């Protein structure tokens, strides 16, 4: 018995050490990605003054719409379907119990809206908390808004989150849809000078998780469903904005203004570069897709930013990154189905702390190499 206990203790100590080393590597990877993002945002801010297309801006030659707005066909992993067959929508009684426990503040009303689908809860948040940036973000994508109402909420988003470039990008997209080109270009230039890009995805996931826990779901169910229930409508809007910017660049070039045409492409690449550091992986891929669209319209031999790379070299690097992410997802097909509830908890926690790609690599280490 003593020998068995000693062997078990040694094994557990070794396993703990291995997990600690993996956690350390993941932490270093997260820090590296954060440093890269900070450096990218710094470069964008430093060069924003040179990225000012001429006004008045020409009209778009086409709408810039595409049939498929998903990022190169990759869809978000349906975690919940692989866990248990259980409804993902909270009923009225569960929502009221949650609101009673957490209060009817901005965050709880938005969470109740997302987890129940009850649009009246979003309306209540919009009426009672119009200066909250989270409310403004959700309101921008509310159904049945008129163009004037959407413009009001976009303005509210910019005012409530003055350092968040996402508000400017969404505003630019709306201006371009309305044919107000000068205002759209001004929003793009303003966005390029800001050092923050926040879509609140992590906050929304965490709030959803707490709502499902309060409704009696298990920890694993709450974490998985809470993440799955977060919609990402900004992805399609940002990708369409990137396409419109390339179309605008063509319009500038046809008008004989090559400098403005290049400036718009640089702004489009900056949009993609900013969002490519986002999570989940589908957001990362959308950012890379936008940057690739912009780079594809540039002279492949021209220098790109301050990195010392040509546009073609940067494009090749992004293609390699996309292939690596797609391969990682394919390697995990069917793998996640074998995870226990406790490992689902660990997976989602790693996803939120280190990113979805890091979580998938962890799953590969634990389940894919036996």
Write up what this structure looks like:
The chain has 370 residues and is an all-alpha fold. The protein is 68% helix and 1% strand. It contains 16 helices and two strands. A two-stranded antiparallel sheet has the order 1-2. Strand 1 (303-304) and strand 2 form a beta hairpin. Helix 3 packs antiparallel against helix 4 (119-128) and helix 14 packs across helix 16 (356-367).
List the helices and strands and how they pair.
Elements: H1 2-47, H2 92-102, H3 106-116, H4 119-128, H5 133-140, H6 147-160, H7 165-177, H8 181-192, H9 201-214, H10 219-228, H11 234-254, H12 258-275, H13 281-296, E1 303-304, E2 309-310, H14 311-331, H15 341-354, H16 356-367
Antiparallel strand pairs: 1-2
Helix pairs in contact: 2-3, 3-4, 3-9, 4-5, 5-6, 6-7, 7-8, 7-11, 9-10, 10-15, 11-12, 11-13, 12-13, 13-14, 14-16, 15-16
Using brief descriptors, characterize the structure shown.
370 residues; mainly alpha; two-stranded antiparallel sheet; 16 helices
What's the count of strands? 2
| Category from helices, strands and their pairing | mainly alpha
Radius of gyration, CA atoms, in whole angstroms? 23 Å
Low-confidence stretches: 66-71
Structure in a nutshell:
Helices cover 68% and strands 1% of the residues. With 370 residues, it is mainly α. Helix 3 runs antiparallel to helix 4 (119-128) and helix 13 (281-296) runs antiparallel to helix 14.
């Amino acid at each position: 018995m003593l020998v068995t206990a000693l062997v078990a203790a040694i094994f557990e100590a070794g396993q703990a050490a291995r997990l600690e080393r993996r956690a350390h590597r993941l932490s270093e990877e997260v820090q590296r990605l954060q440093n890269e993002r900070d450096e990218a945002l710094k470069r964008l801010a430093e060069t924003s003054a040179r990225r000012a297309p001429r006004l008045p801006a020409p009209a778009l030659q086409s709408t810039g719409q595409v049939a498929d707005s998903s990022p190169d066909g990759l869809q978000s992993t349906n975690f919940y379907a692989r866990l248990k067959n259980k409804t993902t929508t909270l009923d009225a009684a569960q929502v009221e119990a949650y609101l009673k426990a957490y209060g009817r503040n901005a965050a709880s009303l938005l969470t109740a809206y997302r987890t129940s689908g009850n649009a009246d809860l979003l309306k209540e948040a919009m009426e009672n908390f119009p200066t909250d940036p989270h409310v403004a973000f959700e309101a921008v994508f509310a159904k049945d808004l008129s163009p004037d109402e959407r413009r009001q909420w976009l303005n509210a988003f910019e005012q409530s989150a003055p350092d968040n470039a996402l508000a400017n990008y969404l505003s630019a997209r709306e201006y371009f849809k309305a044919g107000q080109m000068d205002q759209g270009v001004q929003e793009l230039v303003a966005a390029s000078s800001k050092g923050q890009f926040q879509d609140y995805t992590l906050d929304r996931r965490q709030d959803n998780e707490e709502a499902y826990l309060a409704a009696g779901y298990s920890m694993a169910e709450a974490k998985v469903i809470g993440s799955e229930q977060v919609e990402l409508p900004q992805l399609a809007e940002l990708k369409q904005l990137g396409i419109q910017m390339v179309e605008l660049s063509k319009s500038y070039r046809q008008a004989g203004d090559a400098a403005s045409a290049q400036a718009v492409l640089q702004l489009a690449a900056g949009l993609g570069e900013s969002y490519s550091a986002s999570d989940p992986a589908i957001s990362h891929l959308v950012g890379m897709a936008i940057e690739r669209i912009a780079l594809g319209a540039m002279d492949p031999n021209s220098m790109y930013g301050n990195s010392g790379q040509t546009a073609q070299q940067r494009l090749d690097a992004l293609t390699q990154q996309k292939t690596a992410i797609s391969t990682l997802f394919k390697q995990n097909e069917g793998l996640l189905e074998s995870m226990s509830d406790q490992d689902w908890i660990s997976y989602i926690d790693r996803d939120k702390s280190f990113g979805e790609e890091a979580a998938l690599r962890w799953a590969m280490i634990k389940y894919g190499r036996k």
